Amino acid sequence: MYCERVVFEDTWHRLAAESQVIWKSQGRARREVDEARSQHERAEKQQVHATATCLKQDSEIQRLTTQLSEHEELKQELASKDRDLSGKDVEIAELKCRLREFQDKSESLEIDLAAEKVCADTADDTRNVAMTTLNVVQDNSNEVQAMVANAILNSVELDETLAALTVSARSLGHQEG
Q1: DSSP, residue by residue, the chain
Q2: What pTM value is reported for the model?
Q3: pLDDT-based confidence at 68, cuts 50/70/90?
């Protein structure tokens, strides 16, 4: 039995030593499992944080994309307004040119109008002179009519005088009188 006891004690010590090794291994394994769980929890927290960050970034990307789209629309609208403004500038330039032409024509018409007024004033003056002359002529005509009437009344004397002149002319050698 001694042998058995030695074998048993030996086995016992060996089992106790192995048990110690197993306990140490088990403790290490538990620490490793705890560490793995802790790392896993940290990884899950990091994944949750990363997912939240990605969602925020996706939201920010969506916002920036919308702003970029709005910016492009505004840029196109601005370009359209610039083209419209350039067209309006051309239209304004054409209107200014037409205004200058109109002003030049207006000035020319004013000059023509002034010349026409001068002509009208001259025509009025000429008409006044003609009216005065006509009045004088009419007065003279009345006098001439009176003279003709008087001459007609004195025509007998005129006939006698004319006959005497004709005779005198013929006697001087003028056959026709």
Answers
A1: -HHHHHHHHHHHHHHHHHHHHHHHHHHHHHHHHHHHHHHHHHHHHHHHHHHHHHHHHHHHHHHHHHHHHHHHHHHHHHHHHHHHHHHHHHHHHHHHHHHHHHHHHHHHHHHHHHHHHHHHHHHHHHHHHHHHHHHHHHHHHHHHHHHHHHHHHTHHHHHHHHHHHHHHHHHTT-S--
A2: 0.38
A3: very high
